[in-house]
Amino acid sequence: MKTRKVLFLLILPFVAEFIIACCNCNLDTQYGYFSNCNINISELDNSGEKAVVTTSNTIPKEAFGIRISIDRVDNTCYFNSTPSFLYSAFATSCDCPPEFEYLAKDSIVDIEIITTNSYNTIVNGVSTSHNAGSDISKFFYAYSNYEYIEISKYIKNMNYGIKNNIIEQYTFDLLLMSPPEVTSQHQFIVNIELSDGRVLSEQTNLITLQ
Predict the structure, then answer these.
(1) pTM for the whole thing?
(2) 198-80-75 Cα angle (round to 5)
(3) The domain 37-78+102-209: what is its CATH number?
(4) Are the C-beta atoms of 128 and 202 separated by less than 8 Å?
(5) Contact 119, 207 (CB under 8 A)
(6) How do the domains of the chain map onto residue ranges?
(7) Alpha carbons 167 and 72: distance in angstroms, whole number
(8) Where are the beta strands (DSSP E) in the chain?
(9) Please, are residues 159 and 188 in contact by the beta-carbon 8 Å criterion?
(10) Which tens digit of pLDDT belongs to each residue from 119-144?
């Protein structure tokens, strides 16, 4: 048994070199950082086949949503990191690491949706009332890959690195799952809190949810 272990350790470097050679990978991934700088928001109408941006001031209350775009910029110097041969040796497929990856310098900590008007809705058959200035983000879900995801869980997806050398806007949709009880006018403030203490904030237009 000991002989087999020793033999395995002796041939492991050669196996690793063989896999790396076959994959023809460049293992020197270059890393950088991006910062979340500001946000832009649009109102959504989800009454059709898919959610679309609308400029209408009247939207069906069961179909309202908010599209949020976060502007990101390159913010720091770059550095290289070379993975050990063990990582390549135990890979189950020939998936090369990215040549370039941006990491979040200021990760997203929380997302609030503040109502500027009183907001009444029905939750589990019970009427609930929320004063102006309340955070009603629990009534919104992120919609991604045909799934509805709680905002607190979706935030984890937003902090993943960007595995290429192009920094693009990060855009996602929040759909209202608990609409107001009756037709009424509403306006919402979106606050995105970052790990460095900044808060990115934007406000929707005044709309009628009917």
Answers:
(1) 0.76
(2) 25
(3) 2.60.40
(4) no
(5) no
(6) 37-78+102-209
(7) 7
(8) 29-45, 52-53, 58-59, 64-74, 79-81, 100-104, 108-115, 119-123, 126-130, 140-144, 147-150, 170-176, 184-186, 188-194, 199-203, 207-209
(9) no
(10) 999 998 899 999 999 999 999 999 99
